[in-house]
Amino acid sequence: MRTIRTAVIGCGDISVLHLDAIAQLPGVELVAVCDVDAERRERTTAEAGVPGTASLTETLERYSPDVVHLCTPHDQHADLAVEALAAGVEVLTEKPLASTLDDARRMVEAAAASGAPRIGVCFQNRYNATVQEAHRILEHGELGAPTGAVATVAWHRTPEYYLARPWRGTWAGSGGGLLINQAIHTLDLLQWLLGGVTAVTGTASTDSLGEVIEVEDTATVTLTHPSGIRSVLLATNGAPTNLPVQIDIQCEHGTLRIAQELTVLPAGGEQRVVTERAAPPSARSYWGASHAALIADFYAGHGSGQPFWISPAEASPALQILKAVYDGKRGFPRRPGAELDRDNPLLDPTAT
Ligand SMILES: NC(=O)c1ccc[n+]([C@@H]2O[C@H](COP(=O)([O-])OP(=O)(O)OC[C@H]3O[C@@H](n4cnc5c(N)ncnc54)[C@H](O)[C@@H]3O)[C@@H](O)[C@H]2O)c1
């Protein structure tokens, strides 16, 4: 089988996990890395032993990759993805899909265009052993129908985290704060595990880090799911430490708790615990353990002509939910009953 030529665009923090995963994959060859920042580009070039470029365009022209990984800030995802897809190159982009809904829509359309190459979005926590098993239990109704859920994201982000990468604290660079950068994983899991979302209300505020960021660091989100049940997310980047994300799902005949482990507790039955795979040494604790699993799965379908299951359309609801909380005004006060636009194709993973 022909070697798959790949390039990583953006040599910052998360690129390390992508480079590690690529190095583990037989039949995949890293041919170039790219960064607009010369220092980061040169460091990664030296570490990975491949040439570096200063733009995606140069990468495509000089090194003809079959796949590019987008590990750039949020506002860069859409243009880079559209350019790569137009050049016939598969794309694996980091979350979020994009920093704005207009950019997200462009990516959904580019992915749906006739003959478009595959594009996947890195919601790696869907690959967690705990999450996979919870999804299976819910899908098969093993504990009866879910009746509600609560999730908490209590994480610690320092001023230095934002000062080191100013885009993270700005609306222009990031498209939001805690919700789009951190809690988006949990919003995605809630909507995926509970079968989609029909309405959202929420609040977002800057309570801890206002001296260094203009975006929110604290939020609550209440989701209504198609069955009529609700889930509630409580999230902050102002916690004193990084606690494990926790999702508690109540069902008719028992409970599921996803934390570091999955605890399955059937009513009147015996508790069962599912452990998580170990995270690679290069990962921060809060990145989870499943980048390599998602990346391997993405490459397993290379050239198949089949879309990757976490497509732009599939990744859109989480973005749409948090944008509903921001309420289009970047306003922090809640908008009670903010209804999602059900006709919006971004909300329907089956829409083309
Ligand atoms: N899936 C996860 O759990 C997870 C965890 C961390 C970060 N991320 C995501 O990864 C992405 C990058 O985050 P990070 O923390 O590594 O950021 P970072 O700032 O550390 O790295 C981004 C790099 O991209 C470079 N860059 C910017 N524009 C570019 C362009 N047009 N072409 C080439 N390079 C460009 C920057 O110079 C920088 O080196 C974000 O989308 C972030 O949300 C995902």
What do these coordinates show?
The chain is an alpha/beta fold and 352 residues long. Helices cover 31% and strands 22% of the residues. The protein has 12 helices and 14 strands. It has helices at residues 15-23, 38-48, 56-63, 77-86, 101-112, 129-139, 159-164, 171-174, 178-181, 184-193, 291-300, 312-326, and strands at residues 4-9, 28-34, 52-53, 67-70, 90-94, 119-122, 146-154, 199-205, 218-224, 230-236, 246-251, 254-258, 262-266, 272-274. The strands form 2 sheets. Strands 8-9-10-7-11-12-13-14 form an 8-stranded mixed beta sheet, with helices on one face. The protein has a 6-stranded parallel beta sheet with strand order 3-2-1-4-5-6, with helices on both faces. Helix 10 packs across helix 12 (312-326). Nicotinamide-adenine-dinucleotide is lined by residues 9-14, 34-37, 40, 56, 71-74, 76, 94-95, 122, 124, 165, 181, 287. Residues 131-257 form the GFO/IDH/MocA-like oxidoreductase domain. Pfam families: GFO_IDH_MocA, GFO_IDH_MocA_C3. This is Dehydrogenase. Residues 333-352 are annotated as: Disordered.
